[in-house]
Amino acid sequence: MTEVVRRLTARGAATREKIVAAAAQLFYEQGVRNTGNEDIRREAGVSGSQLNHFFATREDLVRAVLARRTAEAADPQRIPGLGRPATRAALRDWADEYVDHWRDRLGGCRVGSIAAETLKSGFALDEDVAGAFEQWRAALEAGLVALRENGELAPDADVGNLALVLLASLQGGLFLTQALRDVAPLEAALGAALEAVDRAGPV
To answer: By CB atoms within 10 Å of each CB, which of 86, 95, 122, 141 scores lowest?
Structure first.
């Protein structure tokens, strides 16, 4: 069931945003199960009644955090062909930014980590998780369509499949980077995905 977000005053929206931001950070650092409402309340600087007012259930809050993280990852401004130049060079820069970002942090994907925990949690959020990854995949595909229209990819390039390759490489690479405490898997996975994109370039 999709969370119903009530029409909020500016102050109410700001309070809700503080709660979601605090929960997002704590869920990532500690996990959903290990983060209590008191932790979130303290981090956000809100009262228990405020937390319960905006999020009647833990499921509602997890859904909001998942939506926030997905919107950040699938932000068109980050994706070549949408908010960036429609070139394969821009796509390589996009991949390099992920590698550089995680080189010193060695953490997992902010979407993938909460998605994986959510799927095993018993929350009725399977559709939300599937929708999150589809939103991200669709954004990547839209960017690749722009690359194809710009002559950076062959007219018959399978942009849907390439978007899946990019997303799967990013997710798998981040998981291994987190597990092995080494950014090399992410760099290798994204490098292989970019080679697949290059092979789909015009002859």
So the answer is: 122
